Amino acid sequence: MELKPLFEIKDLHVRVEGKEILKGVDLTIYKGKVHAMMGRNGSGKTTLAYILMGHPKYEITRGEILFKGEDISRLKPHERAQRKIFLAFQYPMAIPGVSVGNFLRASMKAVSGGEVPIREFRMKLKEKIKFLDMPDTILGRYVNDGFSGGEKKRLEILQMAMLEPEFSVLDETDSGLDIDALTIVAKGINALRNESRSMLLITHYQRLLNYVKPDFVHVLMGGHIVKSGGPELALTLEKKGYEWLAPAEDGGR
Question: Long-range contacts: 65-73, Cβ < 8 Å, 24+?
């Protein structure tokens, strides 16, 4: 079967507060495939996640970001969300005063561009909450306010399940999760996999990839992708660490 590009990053250079973080990233995300991005702390993984979603603090100095052939590098975050692009944060923000139920309905309205029938919304929400083993009472709580780490990450997956994006970036979704929470989060991610959706999983470790098997694995070091391969690459990194790729990093690729 021919692989079809959904998301293409070409010679991407990104600067944050005057410092260049990404130094020429080239990456193609294929339709219906799960890609994993691995790397040390400070390698530029979160910068890549934020720039793909249009964070205003991050400046593209060169390169293109193409989604279904359209250059979206100048689009605002809400415009990218309306194109069915989604970001799950490593550290989800608390929003005191805004209930989870209202937040999810407002998010769906903003992304779809119109009202969501209340009956349809409630039926879908009930189904997804049950699947992710979340209590109904979470709907009345304020977004991430007083949530545990596992609750925050499950809420990110619930948002993804409700919005059904075509392309999702999950920035270290496994960070801080115990094994039970990780299993549930992975279950939600796997349930959303299909031939029309693509995902980029950003992670340090093999652990998440034991539950969500990627089609492709990439290693980001020093602002470049220095290595790409299949799922076996993550296993090699687990055994050898990142040191064995240091010569590639020093060489700039």
Answer: 65/7, 65/8, 65/9, 65/10, 65/12, 66/5, 66/7, 66/8, 66/9, 66/10, 67/6, 67/7, 67/167, 68/6
Select 5-250's CATH number: 2.30.130.10, 3.40.50.300, 3.10.180.10, 2.60.40.420: 3.40.50.300
pLDDT band at 252 (very low <50, low <70, confident <90, very high): very low
Q: What is the pLDDT of residue 253?
A: 34
Q: How many Cα atoms sit within 13 Å of 193 on the Cβ side?
A: 17
Averaged pLDDT for residues 75-84: 96
